[in-house]
Design goal:
heterodimer; A: 363 residues; alpha/beta; Rossmann fold; five-stranded mixed beta sheet; B: 274 residues; 11 strands; 18% strand
Chain lengths: 363, 274
């Protein structure tokens, strides 16, 4: 039975969820707007007998993650956009060495030092690689503090299951907002054997090696093909999304995380104007719910998509791939750390409905 | 018939890829023999770095993790914080440790991470074909200092052991070389001392081993050994820079000497299933 609900900040829930998921290693470096993850860990991780290290840099933090993961332990780091950029080298190595790790990105506006207000400008970085080489991360975008809790716990299971980075992508809003959260009495932790871990031979006839270097091109190609096979399995099994009000929808909004919260209210307002608006909210940004978008594009009632993001149009490229030209895809975005007003989105819906704007982006 | 000599079990059967006359083979063997002598082969975890020794994870027979360039001390931190009773070491060259990895080595020492660093200094980038390293001597010709290292243009060498020994977190730091039998025995003693420091949880230890790079120095192996003695030892004097007074009994148990308060006060989180 669920316990009594408590009011908590998103960032603190991330830390609490990780500890509940059995994570006993946190390595981080201060950066706004994710700092409370670290503050919470600094106390709680030590209290539960785990490891908390304030690293000298994000680069060092992700490499401590690499070490703990290589030794077979559940481990997490968190940061925000500029810090995540610094972690990309380590994330690529983690992918190459096939280690399980959870990385949290509480996204802020960029590029460069940018600002500290919420944004979704790291979609490309998170879903299309980010670091060097052919690799993928499982990318999860929770939309509420409750979902943040549940999906952080799940992220550890997925990371262990597939031996890859599971990245939680939030934003400044989600990290800083306080919402009620109901914790479970027991977490659905899936413990997997880690026979590959470098934690001492302990009687094995061979030594365990964790590496991402394969000098022989044929060996490296084989290694890459194995990774690609694994990613195909993830694509087949781990797509998650929420479909809202999709029956008879005329216009389908695509939005994730914080942005989807704003759009959810617009659906109701559009209905009052007699416009049937549905929404597909990807929960996994990779693997992306292409099939759901494609099936929506096939619906006779659907006239168009409206992609809403806190960036200059990044997820829209995946929405277009899913729609595959079958229906037009419009865009509405805000930049610099601003959030769209519901009215902005509603006006856009009305304009699309009345055929008054052309496909593509605008601000 | 009595066995008078056999290869150490601390090394795998894989042939080294190192150039003739390179000191890595000797230093690998000293590390491997230390693991065996202390019955640590089954529990130790080593961290290989980037450079000529990237492949050391295939040669040294304990569990090994290959790290990104310069990051080995951070990777070792992540391992050691979880495996507090296992010997955890890094094996790094001077490009790796003294250039791209300066932040990681300084802070691992400052935190007094209870790890051991084997730091091999040959005053040059070996793997990428002989570029100037932070440790390259003044006047030394390399592929990126073709007229010799000019301090007014390329700055001065970094003396890693000296500057790390100023940190309160560093327990034991010694510089050795492996140019001859006497020095090899001395290097082995230093590596054993570092092992004891870690086993007694005294904190950060580093053994800097001066090494030749005949290929990139453009010298015959024996000439390279002499060049090391005549030139490198002037810039990098051998000796113990921290923890000289730390002593152990015959069983390797700490007896006396100034030590830092160890940073590793978290409890074990248990072993992974294997």
């Amino acid at each position: 039975m669920a316990q009594k609900r408590v009011l908590m900040k998103g960032n603190e829930v991330i830390a609490e969820a990780a500890i509940r998921a059995g994570c006993r290693n946190y390595f981080g470096y201060p950066i706004t707007p994710q700092t409370e993850v670290m503050h919470y860990m600094a106390k709680k991780m030590v209290q539960v007998g785990g490891n908390f290290v304030q690293a000298e840099s994000e680069v060092a933090a992700i490499n401590m993650v690499y070490g703990a993961a290589a030794a077979g332990f559940r481990v997490m780091t968190s940061s925000s956009s500029p810090g995540i950029s610094l972690k990309q080298e380590g994330i690529s190595y983690i992918a190459g060495a096939e280690l399980p790790a959870v990385v949290v990105n509480i996204v802020r506006a960029g590029p460069g030092l940018g600002g500290i207000q919420p944004a979704q400008g790291d979609y490309f970085q998170a879903t299309k690689g980010g670091g060097h080489g052919d690799y993928r991360n499982i990318v999860i975008a929770p939309a509420s503090v409750q979902e943040l809790y549940e999906l952080v716990v799940e992220a550890f299971n997925l990371a262990d299951k597939y031996r890859m980075t599971c990245m939680i992508v939030g934003d400044g809003t989600l990290g800083q907002m306080m919402e009620p959260v109901a914790f479970r009495d027991e977490e659905p932790i899936v413990n997997v054997e880690k026979p590959w871990a470098a934690c001492g031979r302990k009687g094995d006839s061979f030594h365990h090696t964790v590496t991402s270097i394969y000098i022989d091109p044929d060996v490296l190609e084989k290694k890459n093909l194995e990774l690609q096979d694994k990613y195909k399995i993830v694509e087949a099994n781990e797509v998650r999304y929420e479909a809202i009000n999709m029956e008879d929808a005329e216009i389908v909004i695509t939005a994730f995380a914080t942005c989807s919260r704003i759009c959810r209210n617009v659906i109701r307002q559009a209905a009052e104007l007699g416009i049937k608006v549905g929404m597909i909210r990807p929960i996994t940004l990779w693997p992306f719910p292409y099939k759901a978008i494609s099936e929506a594009a096939d619906m006779s009632s659907v006239k168009a998509f409206l992609d809403v993001e806190l960036n200059a149009g990044q997820m829209i490229e995946d929405v277009r791939l899913g729609a595959n030209g079958k229906k037009p895809v419009y865009f509405h975005g805000r930049l610099g750390g601003n959030l769209p007003m519901q009215k902005e989105i509603l006006d856009k819906i009305v304009a699309i409905h009345e055929g008054k704007i052309t496909e593509g982006g605008n601000f | 018939m009595a066995v008078v000599f056999e290869p150490t079990k601390g090394l795998t059967d894989k042939p080294f890829h190192y150039c003739p006359g390179c000191c890595h083979g000797i230093i690998h063997r000293l590390v491997a023999e230390t693991l065996v002598a202390n019955d640590a082969l089954e529990t130790a975890v080593g961290v290989a770095s980037v450079g000529c020794t990237y492949n050391s994870y295939e040669y040294i027979a304990c569990d090994m993790v290959q790290a990104a360039h310069g990051r080995a001390p951070a990777v070792a931190t992540g391992i050691k914080r979880n495996l507090k009773d296992s010997f955890v070491f890094t094996y790094q060259g001077d490009g790796d440790l003294a250039s791209i990895g300066t932040a990681e080595i300084v802070h691992a020492a400052a935190r007094s991470e209870n790890i051991t660093v084997i730091f091999v200094n040959n005053a040059v980038y070996g793997m990428t074909s002989g570029q100037m390293a932070p440790t390259t001597l003044v006047g030394q010709v390399t592929t990126t200092s073709p007229w010799g290292r000019d301090p007014s243009y390329q700055g001065y060498p970094i003396n890693v052991s000296e500057f790390l020994s100023n940190l309160a977190g560093a327990a034991y730091i010694e510089r050795v070389c492996v140019t001859d039998f006497k020095n090899i025995q001395n290097a082995k003693r230093a590596i054993q001392k570092a092992f004891n420091v870690q086993k007694n949880k005294l904190g950060f230890s580093l053994v800097e081993v001066l090494s030749t790079c005949p290929t990139n120095w453009g010298k015959d192996p024996l000439v390279a050994m002499e060049w090391l003695k005549e030139n490198m030892e002037k810039q990098y004097p051998l000796g113990c820079y921290k923890g000289a007074d730390i002593t152990f009994d015959a069983d390797g148990k700490y007896v006396s000497g100034a030590i830092p308060a160890t940073a590793n006060n978290c409890v074990n989180v248990g072993e992974v299933k294997k």
